[in-house]
Amino acid sequence: MAVAEPLNIAIAGFGTVGQAVARILVAEHAERLRLTHVCNRRIAEKRVDWLPATVAWTERFEDVLASDVDVVVELIGGLDPAETWVRRALDARKSVVTANKQLIARHFAPLVRLARERGVQIGFEASVAGGIPVVQALRQGLAGDHLFRVSGILNGTCNYILTRMEADALPFEDALAEAQAKGFAEADPTDDVDGLDARAKLAILARVAFGYGVDPAAIVARSIRPIQAIDLLYARKLHRVIRQVSRLERANEEDHAEVLAFVQPALVPIGSSLANVQGSQNIVAATGRFGGETTFAGFGAGGNPTAVAVVSDLLAIAGGSVPIADDAEGEDVLAITGDAVARHYVRFTVKDRPGIIASLATAFCRHGINIDAVLQEPGLPKTRLPFVITLEECSASVLRRALGEIAALEFHLEAPLALPILD
Ligand SMILES: NC(=O)c1ccc[n+]([C@@H]2O[C@H](COP(=O)([O-])OP(=O)(O)OC[C@H]3O[C@@H](n4cnc5c(N)ncnc54)[C@H](OP(=O)(O)O)[C@@H]3O)[C@@H](O)[C@H]2O)c1
Description:
The protein is α/β, with parallel strands linked by helices. The protein contains 13 helices and 17 strands. It has helices spanning 16-28, 61-66, 82-91, 101-118, 134-141, 156-168, 172-181, 190-193, 196-210, 229-237, 303-318, 356-366, 396-406, and strands at residues 7-12, 33-39, 56-58, 71-74, 95-98, 122-123, 147-153, 220-221, 240-250, 259-269, 281-288, 292-299, 336-337, 341-350, 371-375, 385-395, 412-421. Strands 7, 8, 9, 10, 11, 12 and 13 form a 7-stranded mixed sheet that branches. A 6-stranded parallel sheet has the order 3-2-1-4-5-6, sandwiched between helices. Strands 15-16-14-17 form a 4-stranded antiparallel sheet, sandwiched between helices. It is elongated and about 80 Å long. The relative contact order is 0.13. The mean pLDDT is 94. NADP nicotinamide-adenine-dinucleotide phosphate is lined by residues 13-18, 40-42, 75-77, 81, 99-101, 126, 130, 301-303, 306.
């Protein structure tokens, strides 16, 4: 049922996304969505002259709660005070739209319950894959299917770094510095490059695609920091590229089945949908029992693309359609494993001497792992030689045990790097 218009909107957090939302509201939707409040700390530094004079500027969230605002747009980020502000807004019967992945990944079920109890809405389209409308697409567009796998590239910073390393054989640090200079990476890139940002998004996708929660902290998240330019060269020899892949997969057809979930750098075939994602773009590929694979790609971050997702949620609320699906608030949490069975790429960096391959083969054999091939670029220095062994299918846990043993051998100059080879 459509809501009486216009809706009064408060933006809490007037930063990159908050300002982009304000611009779109004023330029495109002033008749249906009326921006009445902007709330931010140090508000004097935030004031702009391009918003209507009727907008109230405040540092006190209480002013927003006490007002006739219908929807609070939470764009301050982080958990504290964002969680409190969102709870208080819902409690005061104000709908909430948020781009906050950490908040939604951890507190989805109680927030949705509170929203329902108070008869208001909570929209979180912008919390996953920025401007790609994947929440609505999975919940509504693919509601007719039985989804069993969701794969994606959910972090544009990692993708920018990996594609730049690949294009110009850059070291990780140089590609990261370039990403920071161009605004694709934060000054502290930890959450992005170490997979923490992507695993929060993956937890939200589990909710959206499978209808159940997963604990984001339980999702295996591996960093792209150990990737070197030589890995991208060896990957190419295997007709593959390296991407930071996020994946969810039901173990079987049962709704409550354990879910394989990971965020990690992996080799993917050249020409595949994941390999084709360049620069800071994102992709989500959903696979269902009936419809096969459907992909959604575009800008996963950035002020304007993210603001589009926020404004779309606002329009959905104004139009009376429910941003969250009716069956999405279940409090059940699915068990997770990160123990994927896959072929693997393992790069060793050694001081060369005869017998190294023989010792590695013996160790892999002891763990029942078959070697597929050995790759060594000609002309590399023997005093610091990176070479690769590809392995036939084995589980990540068996490989970890084998590599634990192998790491104790004396010829390593660096810890071996193991990456799954995905098809
Ligand atoms: N930027 C993107 O591309 C993107 C993409 C997808 C999702 N998101 C999400 O969108 C949200 C906002 O991101 P953003 O990039 O717009 O961040 P941002 O540029 O840092 O903006 C955050 C704003 O909130 C204000 N703020 C932070 N903590 C506050 C507090 N305790 N009290 C009052 N004001 C506070 C900040 O004020 P100060 O300026 O004083 O610090 C700033 O104006 C986050 O949840 C983020 O994860 C962002």
